[in-house]
Amino acid sequence: MQLGLIGLGKMGGNMAERLKLGGHQVVGFDFNAEAVAHLTTSGNLGVSTIEELVQNLKGRRAIWIMVPQGDPVDQTIAKLEPLLNPGDILIDGGNSNYKDTMRRHKEVTAKGFHFVDVGTSGGVWGLKEGYSMMVGGLKEPVEYLRPIFETLAPAADKGWGHVGPGGSGHFVKMVHNGIEYGLMQAYAEGFTILEKKQEFGLNLPQIAEIWRYGSVVRSWLLDLTADALAGNPTLDGLQAYVVDSGEGRWTVFEAIDLNVSAPVITESVIRRIRSREDNNFTDRMLAIMRKEFGGHAVKEG
After folding, report:
1. Rounded to whole angstroms, what are the CA distances from 262 to 169, 247, 253, 281, 283?
2. Fewer Cβ atoms within 10 Å of its own Cβ: the N or the C terminal residue of the chain?
3. Could you tell me if 240 and 279 are in contact, meaning their C-beta atoms sit under 8 angstroms apart?
């Protein structure tokens, strides 16, 4: 199966590689000429314009958009629509606000096309481990895309699912990221308590390894944390500056709108904002965990 892919950053490039290994051809476009060239040399097809991308897709076109949320998504859709045929499918695999997605779904379908939203998790590890995908949209285009989802997922029947109508995929991913914020904050605070108990001389990498097996708090996030601590037990050279990309805030706003008490997620968002005010061990823990699971840059110095 062919798939058009717009956005060949770390995640997009890894997705293209995983699809190629699964027997699918990706036709990809990015403003980064080096990323386009790499796609071609790795066995897929990189193109230099969106028009060329659409021209190289045969039959019913399915185009996966991996660009920053907000106006870049709207601009990309606007460029694609004049090039599409009725029944073609646009897929937003980025971290868009679900309310924007609901609007786009309505606008795109009114023009005779389909719109599918895919909340995608997996970061830089997706190529090896597979991606978790929360899919929103109409049943028919989602079923058409099933071979793509089954290839990108950890297994054909695991790690992905059609969760509901247009916007629901991004809504579920938003809450997923809010939970992620809370989990990361709990680990960071716990390890900081251990680090502060100087009289015991506790070895944080050792404790992380102990907890990885048999413990009720074991998780993939803890596995990545253990690896990070093994490489830098005292987090030397890191600044306690943790970026938030929006999903945690949106989850808090939604909780307030729904009259749901979500103090852990809310406080974890506040703590990230707090991290930009001074340098402390807790927030350096958060920064290094984001680097490990998602390849996000850390601020050093």
Report:
1. 21, 14, 10, 25, 21
2. C
3. yes
